[in-house]
């Protein structure tokens, strides 16, 4: 047993499966680069066989990332595994993660396969994958609700076929910490060749215990890999939160006795980037990265912290990236200060020309807003990517008229495959009129299931960040847009959601 805990981040795969959290390939690349700076050991970049878009995203990430292993998910069949291997070809270090369900319920109702068929397929899949890459992870989906004897049989067989990591998912978030920890321990004791693989935990948060269950899997079960996501993003109630598990193991090193490679200084930046990219806002009281995580409101606490900070603080805010956050840029900030800030925020730009374009937009914003916060810079960079050539729809300009007692009118100019079009409409309010103006042209038929506005940095001088969630033909996507004018931010968010609907059109049903 080693004393190193491997951090396997699946924000770009399991996290992305959260309804509305789909990301473009450029967004995935930007987050992957920050995960690499965070020194995550393994980045699960996607599920290449699920769509051409996901294949391209995994390929892009695999070609760019040098210091983390890049992983692709595949079902336990030759086609999926070959697609994953193909997407990962350019990686400095690659892993194929293959899975098949092993619980009685999933085998009978979902797969309609007998246990013996599942056993054979698991073996063949791992054998096939091992002929393509040296690093193969196997997951028995819904493992925690599987029969112990059957699970031991499957795991022994896949390790014999060369699986190097065995991941035991609590796919539906049903586990209880002590029971899950003991489950992993029993598996490790009963599988004869268990010492030939690294054991991993993968917990969902349906009962709010994903982090606690993962920690029990490590402490009681002896697992040495944790699968997790930034902000706990993921299907339904999400996955184990990376920032929480990392800070628990670091802060209580006295108890866990484990080391990790993670550079926690980038945790806040990663949380912000994922939140702004997906439109999933972080709750203020979220551990480690929530706005109130280090705020002491009561007089007694404030007094205590001023006298000795460890009276009420068990972690230092600056250790997870909070101190950098205070620096504010403005109209007079130069290109170098801007570039430095991008680096600190974990944003990597491909070329000096890209930095120049972003800097020009920063200057434009600084003309309209006296203080530019980190959130503004991240929003600006996301917006820049959203306006990428190659996207179906792009924002150009907007004008609207509203007056008390009159029905607002809006005129929106936007591009459709690079060609400018103009839409006009009235509406209940300026936002409604603007989105209807876009729809008058696009006729997407999508239903809006969420519209939210958030002041990025807290005041009325702030940029408004708008999230629009659209649903169409069983697909759900979030679009995010930011601007000091919330009507413009809304139009940008709407167009970004339409782009995502378009790019999700060919995606296969996601896994747990
Ligand atoms: O939750 C789950 O079972 C999964 C597997 C695909 C690992 O995400
Ligand atoms: Zn999962």
From TrEMBL:
Keywords: Acyltransferase, Amino-acid biosynthesis, Branched-chain amino acid biosynthesis, Cytoplasm, Leucine biosynthesis, Manganese, Metal-binding, Transferase. InterPro entries: 2-IPM_HCS-like, 2-isopropylmalate_synth_dimer, AIPM/Hcit_synth_CS, Aldolase_TIM, LeuA/HCS_post-cat, LeuA_allosteric_dom_sf, LeuA_bact_synth, PYR_CT. Mn(2+) binds at residues 14, 202, 204, 239. It is an enzyme of class 2 (transferase). Its EC number is 2.3.3.13. It catalyses: 3-methyl-2-oxobutanoate + acetyl-CoA + H2O = (2S)-2-isopropylmalate + CoA + H(+). Pathway: Amino-acid biosynthesis; L-leucine biosynthesis; L-leucine from 3-methyl-2-oxobutanoate: step 1/4. Belongs to the alpha-IPM synthase/homocitrate synthase family. LeuA type 1 subfamily. This is 2-isopropylmalate synthase. It comes from Variovorax ginsengisoli. The gene is leuA.
């Amino acid at each position: 047993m080693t004393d190193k805990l491997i951090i396997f981040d699946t924000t770009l795969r399991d996290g992305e499966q959260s309804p509305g959290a789909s990301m473009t390939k450029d967004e995935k690349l930007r987050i992957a680069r920050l995960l690499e700076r965070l020194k995550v050991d393994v980045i699960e970049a996607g599920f290449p066989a699920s769509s051409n878009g996901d294949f391209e995203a995994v390929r892009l990430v695999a070609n760019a990332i040098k210091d983390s292993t890049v992983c692709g998910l595949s079902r336990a069949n030759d086609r999926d595994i070959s697609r994953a291997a193909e997407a990962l070809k350019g990686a400095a270090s690659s892993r194929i993660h293959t899975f098949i369900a092993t619980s009685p319920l999933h085998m009978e109702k979902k797969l309609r396969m007998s246990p013996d068929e599942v056993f054979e397929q698991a073996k063949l899949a791992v054998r096939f994958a091992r002929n393509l890459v040296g690093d193969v992870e196997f997951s028995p989906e819904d493992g925690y609700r599987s029969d112990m004897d059957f699970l031991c049989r499957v795991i022994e067989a896949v390790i014999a076929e060369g699986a190097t990591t065995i991941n035991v998912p609590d796919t539906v978030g049903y586990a209880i910490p002590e029971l899950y920890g003991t489950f992993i321990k029993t598996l490790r004791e009963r599988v004869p060749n268990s010492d030939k693989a690294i054991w991993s935990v993968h917990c969902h948060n349906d009962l709010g215990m994903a982090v606690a269950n993962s920690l029990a899997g490590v402490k009681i079960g002896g697992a040495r890999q944790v699968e997790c996501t930034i902000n706990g993003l993921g299907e339904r109630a999400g996955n184990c939160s990376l920032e929480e598990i990392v800070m628990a193991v670091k802060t209580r090193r006295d108890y866990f006795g484990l080391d990790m490679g993670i550079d926690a200084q980038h945790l806040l930046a990663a949380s912000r980037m994922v939140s702004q990219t997906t439109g999933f806002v972080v709750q203020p009281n979220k551990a480690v990265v929530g706005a109130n995580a280090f705020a002491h409101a009561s007089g007694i606490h404030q007094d205590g912290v001023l006298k000795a900070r460890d009276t009420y603080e068990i972690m230092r805010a600056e250790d997870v990236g909070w101190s950098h956050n205070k620096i504010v840029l403005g109209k007079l900030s130069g290109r170098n200060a801007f570039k430095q800030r991008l680096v600190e925020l974990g944003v990597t730009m491909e070329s000096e020309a890209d930095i120049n374009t972003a800097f020009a937009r920063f200057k434009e914003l600084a003309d309209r807003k006296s203080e530019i916060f980190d959130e503004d810079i991240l929003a600006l960079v996301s917006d820049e990517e959203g306006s990428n050539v190659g996207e179906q729809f792009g924002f150009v300009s907007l004008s609207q008229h509203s007056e008390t007692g009159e029905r607002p009118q809006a005129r929106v100019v936007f591009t459709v495959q690079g060609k400018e079009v103009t839409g006009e409409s009235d509406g209940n309010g300026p936002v409604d009129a603007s989105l209807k103006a876009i729809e008058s042209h696009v006729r997407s038929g999508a239903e809006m299931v969420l519209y939210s506005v958030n002041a990025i940095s807290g005041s009325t001088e702030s940029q408004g960040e708008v999230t629009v969630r659209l649903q169409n033909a069983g697909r759900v996507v979030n679009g995010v847009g930011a601007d000091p004018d919330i009507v413009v931010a809304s139009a940008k968010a709407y167009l970004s959601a339409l782009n995502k609907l378009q790019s999700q059109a060919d995606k296969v049903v996601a896994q747990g």
